[in-house]
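To fix ideas, we reproduce below a protein record of this kind.
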Amino acid sequence: MKGEGVRGVRSSFGKGGPRTGCASFVARLCVAGWLILAAATARADALDTLQAFIREVKTGRAAFTQTVTSPDGVRKRSSSGSFEFARPNRFRFAYAKPYEQLIVADGQKVWLYDTELEQVTVRPFDQALGATPAALLAGGSLERDFELNALPEEAGLQWVRALPRVKDGSFQSLKIGFRDGTLAAVEIVDAFGQRSRLEFTEVEANPALPAERFRFTPPAGTDVIAQ
């Protein structure tokens, strides 16, 4: 079936159906991409590293691999792609394998482009993200929107747990893992118990990114669905 690589996580982006659910997942996951570029000393704990990133890193890009595991731990799906961001409120999150999809936030709207369906779904930025993990890096207050706790070291990583203060049902928990001051992994458990793990490579902090990277114009002939 088309889009099977991300089909299982398209469940909570408003009421637009399975394809639009991917945007919510990506909105949750885009924080993972933004967090990857944290700049802090090796002595700082994971929470200090996260807070330093919020203060200091304004733009970034990296490659990612993603593994989604079913609640029973048996079924797994893999995908990969890249992302870029520029604060405040702009990001470009692209799946390359196994299927192409593009999510672009221009600061006002979030665009989800499904190349196979030739369909674009667009929503206002604040409605698309809300109190999601993406809000960690979209200019909101960490302490206001999230409960943050440093967790014990595990598997060679320092971890931060971020729980939304407003329970909207989109995800249960988010864990952010750092190695030597740089984010190495992010794990998300969604409202259905599905676990997603992202790992990152080719990290660049504060690169010069042209404004055009965060603009989206629907290709000719594409169906546009506004929500």
